[in-house]
């Protein structure tokens, strides 16, 4: 498999974690988001949305990190990233969606650029916007996992699931914009459990070939 991505992209980080978790070998094709390579005609041919990740499996292209995670889960079911009972799968997917649908899109590179370049906001206002939406989403995530008996070592029980795969990269984003994570002790505890695992370590942004200081 081939993964088009950028070292610091959290959506790509999700896919790297899943690939390493399942032991699927893959090659990285770096797309430099800061240089705008996602908007080049050559990459738009691969992904007309101009977003990473894109996964290539044989002659097929796959877009959208959640759809890619589901594809990997269906084609490489072991070790799983979803529990078996439907109601448990729904809980894990809801936690993953909270990040992927309600938090991450509001703090994307293109959203930040639009705030500054088109709407005339300052860099500090961009960061305030990012922090606001991340804090709101993470507060709800914290409440959901802290009060649920289904939470264990990880977001759902004692095995890594898609909820962890979404949570850890998002916490990385939150730190980059200096969100205060003190109010989220369950999330940082789960993050520490995840980062002790080889799959998360190998997938970490700093370990990628295109990583910059
Ligand atoms: N919903 C998409 C989001 C992908 C996405 O927003 N990727 C970001 C990097 S984390 C990106 O390519 N940003 C480029 C830009 O904003 O111009 C997914 O989950 O794959």
SSE arrangement, N to C: EHEHEEHHHHHHH
The amount of helix comes to 40-55%
Shape: globular
> Regarding CATH, which class of the largest domain?
Mainly Alpha
Number of discrete domains: 2
The gist of it:
The chain is of the alpha+beta class and 213 residues long.
What does this structure look like?
With 213 residues, the protein is of the alpha+beta class. It has two domains: 2-79, 3-Layer(aba) Sandwich (Glutaredoxin); 86-200, Glutathione S-transferase Yfyf (Class Pi), Chain A, domain 2 (Up-down Bundle), CATH 1.20.1050. The protein has helices at residues 10-21, 41-46, 65-75, 86-103, 109-118, 123-146, 162-176, 185-195, 198-203; strands spanning 2-5, 27-30, 54-57, 60-63. The protein has a four-stranded mixed beta sheet with strand order 2-1-3-4, with helices on one face. Helix 1 runs parallel beside helix 3 (65-75), helix 1 (10-21) runs antiparallel to helix 7 (162-176) and helix 4 packs antiparallel against helix 6 (123-146). The radius of gyration is 17 Å and the shape is globular. The protein starts with a strand and ends in a 10-residue tail after the last helix. The mean pLDDT is 97. The protein binds glutathione (GSH). Glutathione binds next to helix 1, helix 3 and helix 5. Glutathione (GSH) is lined by residues 9-11, 33, 38, 51-53, 64-66, 100, 108-110.
């Amino acid at each position: 498999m081939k993964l088009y991505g950028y070292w610091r992209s959290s959506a790509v980080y999700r896919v790297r974690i899943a690939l390493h978790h399942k032991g699927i070998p893959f090659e990285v094709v770096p797309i430099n988001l800061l240089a705008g390579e996602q908007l080049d005609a050559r990459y738009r041919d691969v992904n007309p949305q101009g977003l990473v990740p894109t996964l290539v499996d044989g002659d097929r292209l796959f877009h959208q990190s959640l759809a890619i995670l589901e594809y990997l889960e269906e084609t490489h079911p072991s070790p799983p990233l979803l529990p078996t009972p439907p109601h448990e799968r729904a809980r894990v997917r809801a936690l993953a969606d909270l990040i992927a649908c309600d938090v991450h899109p509001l703090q994307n590179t293109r959203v930040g650029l639009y705030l500054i370049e088109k709407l005339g906001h300052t860099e500090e206002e961009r960061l305030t916007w990012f922090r606001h939406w991340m804090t709101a989403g993470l507060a709800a995530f914290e409440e959901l996992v802290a009060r649920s008996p289904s939470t264990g070592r990880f977001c759902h029980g004692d095995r890594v699931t898609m909820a962890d795969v979404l949570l850890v990269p998002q916490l990385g984003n939150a730190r980059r914009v200096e969100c205060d994570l003190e109010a989220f002790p369950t999330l940082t505890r789960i993050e520490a459990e995840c980062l002790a695992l080889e799959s998360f370590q190998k997938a970490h942004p700093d370990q990628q070939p295109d990583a910059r200081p």
